[in-house]
């Protein structure tokens, strides 16, 4: 199923993604070769830089290409690795695990963090949160990538959040809607076993290995206002980081 615009046509970045993928799979670009520059690709496909970057980001997540700052985009393989590749090289990269994917969230409801949940999330006990849950999918083939659970501080968010954030990141929507601005975030990645409920989403056996990515977003006063918990199959997740040494 292709992602479409409100008019029913495939989104422009989705068309470019498919054209570039077809070119890679048909050997127009050899593994190890650099793709043309952004300006050249924008001119070739008649798209904006935004649409092109979204298309290339989708190719990167699927293991077709690798982007390097000031070095261009290099073809890695003619076949998708089927793994979701999370590349961390900047603040934007770190926080855009969601870029180019879609999530259908449940209707928001209020929850209280009791002792166990508070410890799992690393927040205060008996605190009120808006809770949303959804499945993140790759729009190119609707394959489940992860299970997303979002908690937003209900004491600072007087009205219920929406359940469709479109292409926006949730913390950006929170800033626009509630005036709560993120000063930063902490991230923890740890190994877990899939619960029976989560295993059913991925068509896996309960207890199968998975990864949990937990982020706590805080404001300028260091107060946590949003927590996200992403559960991924371990085989579907690659965390890639490039470190440049100054000395």
Provide structural commentary.
The chain is an alpha+beta fold and 247 residues long. It folds into 2 domains: 12-81, Arc Repressor Mutant, subunit A; 102-236, 3-Layer(aba) Sandwich (Chorismate lyase). It has 7 helices and 11 strands. The strands form 3 sheets. Strands 4, 5, 6, 7, 8, 9 and 10 form a 7-stranded antiparallel β-sheet that branches. Strands 1-2 form a two-stranded antiparallel ribbon. It has a two-stranded parallel ribbon with strand order 3-11. α1 (12-25) crosses α3 (49-61). The protein is globular. Residues 1-9 have low confidence and may be disordered.
Give the biggest sheet: 7 strands, antiparallel
**SS field, number of helical segments:** 7
Percentage of residues assigned to helices = 25-40%
Structural class determined from secondary elements: alpha+beta
CATH top level of the largest domain?
A: Alpha Beta
What does the oligomeric state look like here?
single chain
- The SSE string, one letter per element, is HHHEEEHEEHEEHEHEEE
Strands, count: 11
The CATH topology of the largest domain comes to: Chorismate lyase
Measured distance between first and last alpha carbons: 48 Å
Named at the architecture level, the CATH assignment of the largest domain is 3-Layer(aba) Sandwich
**Count of discrete structural domains:** 2
Range of strand content? 25-35%
What would you report as the Rg, rounded to the nearest angstrom?
19 Å
């Amino acid at each position: 199923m292709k992602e479409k615009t409100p008019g029913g046509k495939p989104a422009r970045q989705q068309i470019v993604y498919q054209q570039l993928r077809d070119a890679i799979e048909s050997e127009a670009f050899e593994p190890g070769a650099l793709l043309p520059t952004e300006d050249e690709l924008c001119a070739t496909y008649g798209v904006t830089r935004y649409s092109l970057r979204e298309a290339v980001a989708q190719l990167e997540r699927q293991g077709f290409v690798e982007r390097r700052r000031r070095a261009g985009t290099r073809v890695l393989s003619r076949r998708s690795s089927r793994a979701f590749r999370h590349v961390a090289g900047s603040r934007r990269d770190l926080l855009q695990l969601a870029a180019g994917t879609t999530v259908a969230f449940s209707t928001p409801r209020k929850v209280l963090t009791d002792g166990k949940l508070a410890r799992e999330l690393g927040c205060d006990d008996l605190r009120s949160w808006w809770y949303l849950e959804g499945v993140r999918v790759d729009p190119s083939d609707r394959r489940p990538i992860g299970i997303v659970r979002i908690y937003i501080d209900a004491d600072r968010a007087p009205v219920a959040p929406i359940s469709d954030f479109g292409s926006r990141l949730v913390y950006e929507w929170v800033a626009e809607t509630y005036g709560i601005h993120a000063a930063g975030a902490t991230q923890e990645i740890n190994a877990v076993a899939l619960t029976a409920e989560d295993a059913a989403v991925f068509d896996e056996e309960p207890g199968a290995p998975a990864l949990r990515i937990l982020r706590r977003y805080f404001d300028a006063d260091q107060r946590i206002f949003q927590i996200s918990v992403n559960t991924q199959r371990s085989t579907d997740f690659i965390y890639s980081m490039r470190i440049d040494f100054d000395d």
